[in-house]
Amino acid sequence: MEVFHGSDKLHEECGVIGIHAPGVPLISQMVCYGLIALQHRGQESAGIAVLKDNKMQYYKEMGLVQEVFSNEILDRLPADIGIGHVRYSTTGESYVSNAQPLVVRYKGGSIALAHNGNLVNAGEIREKLEDEGSIFQTSIDTEVIANLIARNYHMGMKEAVIESVKEIKGSFALVIIIDNMLIGVRDRNGLRPLSLAKIDGGYVLASETCAHDVVGAEFVRDIEPGEVVIIDSNGVESMRFAENCRKAVCSFEYVYFARPDSIIDGRNVFVTRKEAGKILARENPVDADMVIAVPDSGTAAAIGYAEESGIPFDVGLIKNKYMGRTFIQPDQKSRELAVRLKLNAMKDNINGKRLILIDDSIVRGTTSAKLVKTLKDAGAKEVHIRVCSPPVTHSCYFGIDTPNRQHLIGAIKTVEEIREMIGADSLAYLSAEGLVQGIGLPKCELCTACFDGDYPMEVPESADKLRFE
């Protein structure tokens, strides 16, 4: 969101990857390449933890993956098992001490853990553990999980992990190194994605299949909601810690978070966005000369809209791909400059034309207003905005950075009021039914809470926004 990062998008919290391949060379490098593929899921910190000959090592720092890791650093991390993490956090928690993977030492050895998601009962468990004498060094929920596992180690580590994840509530995709095992866990609702792939000599776990592709792994399957997979020298063992829970895959993975070339729970992200764009064209047609996209997240939907409407798709906005990390904008003038730095209009292409601008979502509306002005200043005759998701009306408690509800424009203004505020000639959103149809999964298997308030589990009434991982 702009108040934090000069952006008007929801932010995914993290991306995780784990590789178990004893004897295979360059595992740390493979983890690093996988993290680069997952960079869109978190751009504030990056880290890798490895195990070799029962020795745990790790390195993590603030910055993009390629800023954090050099060949020299990776060469100092020999590995049979490796896990990696990229992180996005809210302002105030962006410290290297909160970067992951988290490595903790306990009576039986060391645990390395990386977590994508957010726990809704972390405060309650942390308080209980502190009352029992536990000491915490970070403000992240991941340390709560690590402490639970360490406390239960006497059960044996497989059982310790299972008993620990039974206690936590919320969203989580975990990759863990413990006792020469790589363990993956997906929360009981499957809110956060996690999948398994096979490479020569071992296995890979990752938030998205695009990371499998980069390291040359062959996709095997998605980890099921409520499943724990244990990878060791004997292969892959599957166990369940929760049964008969409602599957509720985050619908925003398909709208915006995931890379278009990823497949999540059997659905190719590009295909779902393109199909949603076609449905958007049927639901909200408008007479115009050209369909353009807010790059890159609106591109697939714009192609679908153009195909369905018969109006040609062309380039209207050029994105600067070398922005690096987003940064806080201290004043209005700097924020406006940052928008122009990120996106610039193709004047000769759009001059005198009636445009349909396709975006994946509108959160605050501030960037939309600036884009409409940019396009009209460049000579666009009309700008009609079509949004390939319903209005965002509710905060997320499951590991996505959303503003408080009073800052969500879809929660406080009508569509006509939003249109007037952003200066568009017309504005229309994809319907909730159209979104579900575009994704291609049953409504009962999706979390659409940010659009309709239908949370898949009980959320705290006292807090409109929780601490994020």
Give a count of the beta strands, DSSP E runs of length 2 or more: 25
Count up the helices. 18
Any idea what the radius of gyration is?
22 Å
What name goes with the CATH superfamily of the largest domain?
Aminohydrolase, N-terminal nucleophile (Ntn) domain
Keywords, please?
469 residues, Glutamine Phosphoribosylpyrophosphate, subunit 1, domain 1, Rossmann fold, 27% strand, disordered C terminus
Question: What would your notes on this structure say?
Answer:
The protein is of the alpha+beta class and 469 residues long. The chain folds into 2 domains: 2-245, Aminohydrolase, N-terminal nucleophile (Ntn) domain (Glutamine Phosphoribosylpyrophosphate, subunit 1, domain 1, 4-Layer Sandwich), CATH 3.60.20; 268-441, Rossmann fold (3-Layer(aba) Sandwich), CATH 3.40.50. It is built from 18 helices and 25 strands. The protein has a 7-stranded antiparallel β-sheet. Strands 6-7-8-9-13-14 form a 6-stranded antiparallel β-sheet. Helix 6 crosses helix 7 and helix 10 (269-283) runs antiparallel to helix 17 (432-439).
